Amino acid sequence: MPKITVLDQDTINQIAAGEVIDRPSSVVKELMENAIDAGATAVTVEIKDGGISFIRITDNGCGIEKEQIPTAFLRHSTSKIRSVEDLLTVSSLGFRGEALSSIASVSQVELITKTAEALTGSRYQIHGGKEILLEEIGAPDGTTFLVRNLFYNTPARKKFLKTAQTEGAYISSLIERMALSRPDVSIRFIQNNQSRIHTSGNHNLKDLIYMIYGREIAGNLLPVEAVKEAVKISGFLGKPLISRGNRTYENYFINGRYIKSNLINKAIEDGYHSYMMQHKYPFVVLNLEIEPEFLDVNVHPSKMELRFRNPEEIYDSVCRAVHDTLAGKELIRKVSLDAEPQKDSPQISAKENADTKKHTVQRAPEPFEVRRMIKDREPLWNQEKVRESAAYAKIPVKQPESKTEPSEPEAPKQLELFEEKLLTKEARDEYRFIGQLFDTYWLIQYRDEFLIIDQHAAHEKILYERMVRQLAEKKVLAQMVNPPIILTLNLREEEVLKSHKERFLALGFEIEPFGGREYAVYSVPSNLYGIAQTDILTELLDSLAEELEQESEQVILEKLASMSCKAAVKGGDSLSVKEAEALIDELLTLENPYACPHGRPTVISMSRRELEKKFKRIV
Ligand SMILES: Nc1ncnc2c1ncn2[C@@H]1O[C@H](COP(=O)(O)OP(=O)(O)O)[C@@H](O)[C@H]1O
Ligand SMILES: [Mg+2]
């Protein structure tokens, strides 16, 4: 690696500078970027207490020469650029030379490092920016950074930290993203002595996606490969059926750098446009390779934003690549009646397999000075409760006191379409069922009106109202599911589950650890007993993941609307006349039977007069 030197003032002035160390995850980000820039093929990150008291990052990269160590901790010292012109071609993740000095000024840092050429390694300590020690020590090639007691000397900043659990969750998602951005680097993450992530570095992106997001996502991917003029795009697109409730699953990397860009988000979403329901966001992992001279990375100190020299072209290329990949693909969900949870790995083609074998698996570097016991993962919570199977099937669940009232859906517009109320109990006796159309719509004659009821919307509405009522009366019923539903959760979702387990229980969800990343769902709210529970749960967890900080009662309530929709009879299920009549009977008991919780109409009508006009019987 080139020598580390302090940048000249002119260059410093032109670099987007600013404090970037605001929480443990930013320390981890900077140090992992340094490890990757040092050419490491294996990086181990270990944290305790959400990273607040302890972060250790070990890499097998190029190491730092003893004489260079103090320089590395000076402000604006870097080996990656010399002048501002170098920014035009910079391909390393770091370039500002500020991370080490910033970290060392607000924590207690210990560094152990050795280059391949040196006979011995060095140990360096710096506390609150003050050098404590620099000595020779036996060490393996590579670098270990130990960062203890972040913000110990700046209590005001320490106050802004969240709980260890939340800070730990930020680090988890960061590491998941970094791992996704570098399938060629073996990344290991150990949290409170438990191994949480360990990627193989075998260059196979699909393996990584499987490991981080689980079987359901990995089994529903479409590979993308597109070489456009401005950009080379590769990676995977999630099929629309694994869409999510928020943008956190839109992963993209530009030249290996995780960034945020409204332009790229929009390009991806527009590419999915006709394949995605409104307010749904896709799962993607995309790597964009763009010539450095078409990028300006010197926009924001956190290096999370960048500017494109040719934004239209980039937008167009990404949008098109996404759209073309989706176009013409078989995207219809295949529902299997066999509810047995499968534990097989995603389908990996022979070619991908062969590609994988070409690369040897990297061994993660171990912090050499300690032998750690990695405990087996502890269960999320105690399983003391004894389940009596008979009593278990329908248990009223105690509701937590909630201040928030379930919100009423907005008054639907199509109400105005009806001059006379057609959907009333009084009118019910005069309904004549004609039959079902396309296994979805019920055709009904009522006096001079022809009514068409969408069974899905109607069912949705009924379930929603039932759920709202039960919540208000605080008696949700849990229904046992047998066999349990197995969910594979990512780290963030695990955190959410942990912090909201009481609420989930109150709603009727009983979820227990099932080994590894898997969780078994033993009961669900009885209203949802039916179909698609996996979807509902992951969706709930997704939306809660965004609100980790806040009181989430409202989120849960809002989610109920969409949950009941998921459980609703889908258009396409053929119902018997009896079932349909029961459905309509219940619909008629509702105050507003005209629209589903999302505002779609449950019923439309056509008058005899309109029909006669169409057939030119009258003019
Ligand atoms: N893990 C590492 N392995 C080898 N060298 C490192 C490592 N971490 C930091 N360095 C050296 O220390 C310098 C300063 O690091 P940093 O303050 O993060 O600035 P930057 O990454 O912007 O250059 C780097 O340029 C690099 O030469
Ligand atoms: Mg750096």
UniProtKB/TrEMBL annotation:
Family matches, as Pfam families: DNA_mis_repair, HATPase_c_3, MutL_C
| GO BP terms in the entry | mismatch repair
**GO CC annotations, alphabetized:** mismatch repair complex
Tell me where in this chain the DNA mismatch repair protein S5 domain is found: 209-327
Answer yes or no on keyword Hydrolase: yes
Report if keyword Membrane is assigned.
Answer: no
Region ranges (Disordered): 339-361, 392-411
Source domain of life is Bacteria
Per UniProt, the ranges with Basic and acidic residues bias are 400-411
Single GO molecular-function term? mismatched DNA binding
Which keywords does this Swiss-Prot/TrEMBL entry list? Answer: DNA damage, DNA repair, Endonuclease, Hydrolase, Nuclease
**SMART domains under this entry?**
DNA_mis_repair (SM01340), MutL_C (SM00853)
- Point out the coiled-coil segments of this chain: none
Quote the SUPFAM superfamilies the UniProt record gives. Answer: ATPase domain of HSP90 chaperone/DNA topoisomerase II/histidine kinase, DNA mismatch repair protein MutL, Ribosomal protein S5 domain 2-like
- All residue ranges annotated as the MutL C-terminal dimerisation domain in the record: 433-575
- Similarity comment: Belongs to the DNA mismatch repair MutL/HexB family.
Q: Report the protein's function.
A: This protein is involved in the repair of mismatches in DNA. It is required for dam-dependent methyl-directed DNA mismatch repair. May act as a 'molecular matchmaker', a protein that promotes the formation of a stable complex between two or more DNA-binding proteins in an ATP-dependent manner without itself being part of a final effector complex.
What protein is this chain from? Answer: DNA mismatch repair protein MutL
Q: Which gene encodes it?
A: mutL
